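Suppose you are handed only these lines of text.
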Amino acid sequence: MNQKTITTLHKMKSDGEKIVAITAYDASLAHVCENAGADLLLVGDSLGMVVQGHESTLPVTVDDMVYHTTCVSRVTRQALLVADMPFMGYATTDRALETAARLMKDGGAQMVKLEGGVPQLETVRYLTERGIPVCGHLGLTPQSVYQLGGYRVQGRDQDAATAMLEESVALQQAGAQLLVLECVPQTLATEISRNLQIPVIGIGAGPDTDGQVLVLYDVLGISVNRIPKFARDFMQTAGSVEDAVRAYVQAVRAGGFPGPEHSFE
Ligand code: KIV
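From them, the structure of the protein bound to 3-methyl-2-oxobutanoic acid can be written out as follows.
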């Protein structure tokens, strides 16, 4: 099978084919996820919580992200490999360039992801003008958990929804080629996905985004914390880790996941 690129994902959007993404932090599980058919592997800074045992993603360092991205990139052959820029790793445009360069040159990432809208537009433009593919991330942005007052659904009132819609367009105009939407009402996520040319990957954003992403450990039901409402433990009905990931991939492709019970109003 061929290497998936951002062009592949854009074509999947225009063909109405669901994109399946999942997090991976090490070689063996990255290999399993790829074999199970994932289109995109995200080395998420969620590793701070599910691998390192922190209460948030804030303590994750650039070195941590480069290390885990390297572990995953050594074995990734087909999936698009996206790495998170960690908290404070893109506090200025110069620092963002340095972090992104390390994730790509040392880590082997093919795209970097950063959280936020208006405050990140200059950075997104700066990186993309220098040949660095960028994925945006709106809605619940875990690096801002203390500013947001907790892990809560975002964009519920009209003003916040309008602002998110505008920010998504602004990110696309600044050069972002992909967007993650986390914990937003289903109707808003649908509107944003329809409105953008770039693919929108949802997590807790309902079934109508162009694709889905989940934290691997939630798919396997082994997270330290309670499994979030928007996730499903696919291990309950699977005979192996690879079967569980394959069941997730197939459920997304067939439109069977997420269901109403995993979505927000
Ligand atoms: O860090 C992460 O795993 C993420 C996903 C939850 C989208 O950003």
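What can we learn from it? Residues 23, 42, 44-46, 84, 180, 182, 203, 213, 215 surround 3-methyl-2-oxobutanoic acid (CB under 6 Å). The radius of gyration is 17 Å.
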